[in-house]
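Person: I keep going back and forth on a fold encoding question. Show me how you would write down a chain together with its backbone fold. Please set it down just below, with no commentary around it:
Helper:
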Amino acid sequence: MHLAVTTEASTALQRLGQVPTDFWIKIAIGVAVIVAVVLVLRKLAQMNKVILVVVAGLVFSILGFSWIYERNEPHWATPAVSFLADFFPSKGRVEHW
């Protein structure tokens, strides 16, 4: 019985040795991103909420107007940007008076 456990363990270690290095790098980056997000969220939770709302509003406004003007939004945002692009100026479409 002891030999069977050792054989299974060595087989598992051999399988882990065959996993590409890129996989382990992606796993490490994913774990680092999750840790960073948790740390940032904890810092934001301690921040003054009014300042947080103003800064977030500015960031989203600048990003949104950039998407509307340049029309380089991600695929998921295209319906909203297309709707708003009718009301705001756009680089892709020039209207003459």
